[in-house]
Structure formats: C-alpha cells, structure tokens
Amino acid sequence: MIDIKAIASGSSGNCYRVSDGSTALLLDAGISIYKIQQGLDFRLSEIAGALISHEHMDHAKAVPDLAKRGVLIFGPPGVAKACACPSILSGPPLRRFTIDTWSIVPFQVEHDVTCYGYLLDSKKTGDRLVYITDAAAVPYTFGRVTYMMIEANYSLRILSRRATGGAIKDELAARIAQSHMDIDGAVDILRRLDPRALKQVWLLHLSDGNSDAEAFRRMAQRATGAEVYIA
Ligand SMILES: [Zn+2]
Ligand SMILES: [Zn+2]
After folding, report:
1. Residue 42: helix, strand or coil by DSSP?
2. 196 Cα–ligand 1 center, Å
3. With CB atoms counted within 10 Å of each terminal CB, which end of the chain scores lower, N or C?
4. What residues are neighbours of ligand 2 (ion), with CB under 5 Å?
C-alpha cells in the first residue's frame, strides 16, 4: 500500500508526497516551502528525498529552501542550474538509484526542457509507482504498475474550442499542445497498463480552463477499472 497525497497540482505549483510506510518522498516541489510544510503537517524532517521532474518553477520553486534544510534532491541537470543550487544530485536517464526502501529509475519524457518521469519500486511493499508530468509524449510503455500518477493537462476539444473562440491565444494553445499531455494521451498510456495490477490512478496538473475533471475521471476509470483520483 502506497500513501499518496497531492499537496498542490496545476500550473500554479505541483508537489506530491508518496510513502510506502517506511520512506516518504516528495515528487516535485513547485510551491513555497511554507505550503509544503503545511501540506506535510510540519513533518518535513520525515522526507527522505525529493525527486524533481524539471526546472520550471511550478515544479522546482522550493528546491533552494529544501536544499538549505538538508533534504536530498534529485533532478535532471538543468534543475541545479536554474535553482542556483549546486548540491542537487543528478544522473542520466535510466540509471537506477536507491533512497532507503525505494529503488528509482528516472526516464526522459518530451517537454520544452529536459524533463524526467520516475519509476519507483518499493522494496517494502512490492508496489511500483510511475510519475509522469509535463510530457507531450512518453517513449516508453509500462506493464505492471500498481500506482500511476500521470498528467492530464487538457482536452484537445476544449483547447481548440477556446483557441477558436479567442479565449486563449493561438500561440499559447500551440505551446500547451506541444509540451503537455492531454487526456487522450494519458488514457492511451493507461490502457497499456496491466489492469490486474493497477490499484490507483492519479490525474495531475489539470489546466484550469482547458480541462474537465469529472469527464477526465470517468475516461480514466473506464480505461482502467482502477480507483481514479484528481490531484
Ligand atoms: Zn514544465
Ligand atoms: Zn508544469
């Protein structure tokens, strides 16, 4: 059993706590350290490490403060530079490393800067969790996953309607479509997972104007039969 808590999700900041009962990690830290503290009920000292997907501030805002507090931080090479924080650990995609009871493999996804997804195996529970955000495309398939956390930023239908109606500029719509995952892309990835293994699906980073949380939840539910949560 993995405990997942969405502390923040969306374009104004992303931060999730995942724990296998022995080791708690943060996935992204794109909100202030104060909000992270509140979200953790002031138990930051129990966090064994933070895995950062990429350097954009809605994912990396609290990195300097976490580093100052001595939290172990891992991310793609751009994070250390963007946050002016040389103590951040990095490594190439597909090289496995461990943080206590978690065995972790970063993998690269398609975004407008270098962005990592993470595959996490718990040695304690045997669960496998996959975290994917800010990914226009993911060049991998994942079979037996028990917890899937995946971006479902927008619906192409809603985005096109709003761009056509002038509610959103064409350039912004194009940028979103080229650098983020829409619900159909997320459902495609979900369909390829082993449904017998899958326990929970978390849909992440929904756009305020370009998504429909309830419709997305139903689509993910139909595709997997698993419990679906909107972060
Ligand atoms: Zn981004
Ligand atoms: Zn983002």
Report:
1. coil
2. 32
3. N
4. 58, 134
Q: What pLDDT, on the 0 to 100 scale, is given for residue 216? A: 98
* C-alpha of residue 210 to centroid of ligand 1, in Å: 16
Q: Can you give the pLDDT at residue 162?
A: 96
Domain count, the chain: 1
Provide the β-strand partners of residue 6. 16
Range of the domain at 28: 3-230
Please give the Cα distance from 106 to 49 (Å, whole number): 14
Report the distance separating Cα 130 and Cα 10, nearest Å.
18
Domain CATH code at residue 101: 3.60.15.10
Closest ligand (CA of 206)? 2
Using CA atoms of 105, 111, 112, 118 in order, give the dihedral in degrees to the nearest 10.
-20
Ligand nearest to the CA of 136: 1
Phi then psi dihedrals of residue 137, to 5 deg: -155, 155
Mean pLDDT, each 10-residue run in order, the chain (231 residues): 97 97 98 98 97 98 97 97 93 97 98 98 98 97 95 97 95 95 98 96 96 97 97 97
- Residues 6+ positions from 178 with CB-CB distance below 8 Å: 112, 136
CA of 21 relative to ligand 2 center, distance in Å: 28
Separation of CA 103 and ligand 2 centre (Å): 25
Amino acid at 205: H
Q: How much distance in Å is there from the Cα of 91 to the middle of ligand 1? A: 19
* Residues 6 or more apart whose Cβ sits within 8 Å of residue 25: 17, 18, 19, 47, 48, 49, 50, 51, 99, 102, 120
User: Rounded distance, CA 140 to CA 107, Å?
Assistant: 9
